[in-house]
């Protein structure tokens, strides 16, 4: 038995808070009867309707994908480019990516059919650490890296403090490999941060998300998260916020 608002959130209809609002507004039915009380528990056999539409209840699933470059972090694409869900041809459940990596960025991406879990991880207040490795044109100075660490000005405001570390450099080619650890998830954030200090990113890879990494995986490979890892991610989000 699970709380009604949690079941609605898991189905991807709304966040848990919004689900609670729908219940108190009388927009949810269980077995044909309107339920307005929070805390009602339902079983797998109960029929639930939200605004007269039956919800599809699926067993939640959680995947870690090593996204290759030139793949869209979406379920469909109007330009017929390859999308991340194509790596799961045998998965019949309606999975979707949690957040996104841009078309030219490779690395760790999570997918799920659990709407509530996705909302928790994507919410800006939860600040889960993300580690990127970037190959950039030019060789940033220590002062340049300090600018990244203090936060740089983007169109929508200043980025939060980050961690930056030079991993290697090639003086002949005039390129560098830089590690950048951030907590936010703004659109194309890492590329734009480097552009803000005068460096263009040639290649970019997300190596780590929280405590999860790509160990043992090649581009295009995926694995299912263990129940313990899912629980750890939830706990990590709560801990980072508290």
From TrEMBL:
GO terms for cellular component: cytosol. SUPFAM superfamilies: Alpha-L RNA-binding motif, Pseudouridine synthase. Keywords: Isomerase, RNA-binding. CDD domains: PseudoU_synth_RsuA_like, S4. GO terms for biological process: enzyme-directed rRNA pseudouridine synthesis. Residues 2-65 form the RNA-binding S4 domain. Its EC number is 5.4.99.-. This is Pseudouridine synthase.
